[in-house]
Amino acid sequence: MSILKKISAKLEGMAPADRQIGQFIVENPDQMLRLSSAALAAETGRSQSSVVKFSQKLGYAGYQELKLAVSEAKAQEWQAPAGMIHGTIEVDDGYLTILQKLLGSKLQAMQQTIAVNNELDIGKALKALYEARRIHLAGVGASSLVARDFSYKLMKLGRNVLHDSDSHVQMANASTLGPDDLLFALSYSGTSIETLRIAELASQRNAIVIAVTGLQDNPLAHVADIRLYTVGDEDRVRSSAITARDAQLMLTDLLFILLVQRQPDANDYVHNSEAAVSVLKAKQLS
C-alpha cells in the first residue's frame, strides 16, 4: 500500500491535528513535495513539531523520509512509456530489458531527488554559492567526478574554484578556507572519511559547508550548514554508483542553471569560454 493510500485509510481515526496534516498531503501531494516542514505547518495551521511527529507516527525518522515516500507513491502513478520498467538488473536480462531498467532507475532517481529538495533550501545553496569568495569542492570516488564536472561549470562563470581528485590536496585546500569561503561536499552515504574530515576542517575555519548527501541520518549532514539531498538505489547490489551519481549531477546542473540566471554577466563568461575553446579547436584542425 502506498503512503498516500495508507494516510487516506487512517484519516478517520487520527487526532484533529494529524487529520488536518494528512488531509492536506492526500489532497495536495505535489504541493507537499515542494514544501518544507515549516511551510507545511503554515499551510495546515499547525506547528512544525506537529508535522515532524506526524511523520514519525507513520514510521518515518522525519519529514524528509515522509516526502520521499510520497514522491515514490507519485512516481508509481506516473505513466511511463510503453515497456519501461523499474527494478534491479539481473544476470539473465536481455539487452532491451537492461536498457529499460537502467533508464527507468535513472529517471526515478532524478525525479525523486528534485522532489525531496524544497525551493527554500535550493535558494539558500544558490545564495551561498553566488556570494562565496572561493568555492572548494570535495568528494571521493564517483562523487569526485561530479565535483570535477561542477567545478568546470563554475569556472565557466568566472568563479574562484578549488578542486582536486586527491583527498590530501582537498584537505590542504580546506585548510586555507575562511568565513567568506564555501565548501561544497558530495557524499551519498555521508560517511566517506576523507570528505567528512574535509567538511569538519572547513567548518572549523568558519567556511559555509553545503552537503549533498542521501536522506539517511549521517555525519556529513550534521556538519553542514546547508543540506541538499539525493535519492538513489545505492542500497541495492550494484557494480557502480550509477543512480546516486545521476542524482548528484541533476542537482549540480540545476544549481548551475540557476547561477547562470542570477549572475548578470554569466552569458559573457560562457561566450568567452566557448570562443576560447573554438580557437583551440581551429588550431588543432589547421
UniProtKB/TrEMBL annotation:
The keyword Protein transport does not apply. PROSITE patterns: HTH_RPIR (PS51071), SIS (PS51464). GO terms for molecular function: carbohydrate derivative binding; DNA binding; DNA-binding transcription factor activity. GO terms for biological process: carbohydrate derivative metabolic process. CDD domains: SIS_RpiR. Keywords: DNA-binding, Transcription, Transcription regulation. Residues 125-265 form the SIS domain. It comes from the Bacteria. Pfam families: HTH_6, SIS. Residues 1-77 form the HTH rpiR-type domain. This is DNA-binding MurR/RpiR family transcriptional regulator.
